[in-house]
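Folding Problem: From Residues to Backbone Shape
Fields: amino acid sequence; protein C-alpha cells
RECORD BEGINS BELOW THIS LINE
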Amino acid sequence: MQIRLILATLRHHRLTAALLMLQVALTCAIVCNVVFMIIDRVGQISIATGVDESGLSMLDSEVIDASENTLARQQQDLAALRRLPGVTSAVAVDSLPLGRDESSYGACASLAQFERLASTRSLDQSGCLQPAVLGGTAGELNTLGLHLVEGRDFHQDEFVKGDAVAVAILSRALAEKFYPGKDALGQTIITGSRKPVRIIGIVDTLVRPKLNAFGSNQLAMLWPMPPDSRSTTFLLRSTPQDRHAVLQLAVSQLMRIEPNRIIAPELVRTYSDMRKAYFEHDTTMISLLASSGLGLLFVTALGITGLANFWVQQRTRTIGIRRAIGATRGDILRYFQTENFLIVSFGIVLGMLLAFALNLTLMKFYELPRLPLYYLPIGALLLWILGQLAVLGPALRAAAVPPVVATRSV
C-alpha cells in the first residue's frame, strides 16, 4: 500500500523525480567505469616485474668517439664497475622490464608457422607471438634477480650478436604460450633468422619494457646478446642503502676511464626511480579519477538531500495529518527512505545500461578492457547506501514534526 502511495506521489512530481533519476543514472554509469579504470591502473602500477628491484641502480653512458670499439669499451667499463665498493654484480643491457625501450620479434614454435607468418604478415593467422627480447651481457639473470624455475643460465660462449643467437631464457607465460600443456624446456622457437633458438631456461616472471592492454605483458625472453652501440645502460646490484653512493662512484669511475663520454644526470637513477617515472602518468590519472568520482558522488548526495528537504517542507501538513491519524515516526521515516530507494533504483537500472555504453566507447577509443559484470551490483549497492544516508537527515526531521504543529501549518 505504501509503495502505491509513493508511486502516486511521484507521478505528481514527474519532472523533479526524473531529473534525480537521471542524475543517479549518470553517476552510476560514470562511477562504475571510474572505479574500474582506477582498479585497472592500480593493477598495472602493482605489476610484478619478476626483478628483485630493491638493490638495483643504473646509468646510461654514451661514448662520443664513433670509431671506438664499443664492445671492448663495454668490457673495460664493466670490469671497473665490478671492482667498486658495494657493487655485487654489474652488467650491460639493451633494455629492462618497464624500461620503455623495447625490441620485439615475431617468433613461432615451428618453421611452418614462421613461413605462414612471413606470407600472411599476421600473428593471429600464423599462430605466432611477438615477445619482447631483452639482451645483455653475462650475469644479467642474476643481476636482475630473476627466479629461474627450470633449466640454466647462459654460458659464456653463448653470448653472440643478434642473428647468431642460438639459446634463450623465456618467461613462464611465454613458454606456456609456445608449448601449452607441454614442457617447453629443450624445445625450440623460430625467429627472424629462421634458425632454431633452443629454450635452455624458464623464469617465473618477466615483464616487457613497455606494458600494453593486450594481455601480453609477460611475453618476454632473455637473449645472450650484449648491447652493441655507443649508448650503453649499465645495471648495478648493491645493497639497497648503498645504491646512491654506488651510482656516484660509478659515474666518477667511468668518467675517469674515458672522459670523452656523456652521462646524463637524469639517466643516473635507481630501478625504483625508473619504475616510479614509468607509472607517473598512471598515478596522476588515478588521483584525477578518484577526485572526479568522489566529487560526482558528493554532488549526487547533495541533490538527494536537497530534494528530500524540499519535499519535507512541501508535505509538512500531509505529514502532520498522517501523524494525527496514527502514523508513527518510524512510518514517516520508512516512507521517505522507501521513496528515495525507488527513485535511486530506477536511476540505477538506467545507469547500468549507460555504464555499458560508456565502457564500449572507452574500449573503442582508449583500449580499456571490457567492464566486468560484478562492478554493476557493487555500484548499485554504493548508490543505494549513499541515497539512504543522504535522505536520512531530512527523513528524521520529517519524522520529528509534531502532529499539532504540522496540522496548523499552511
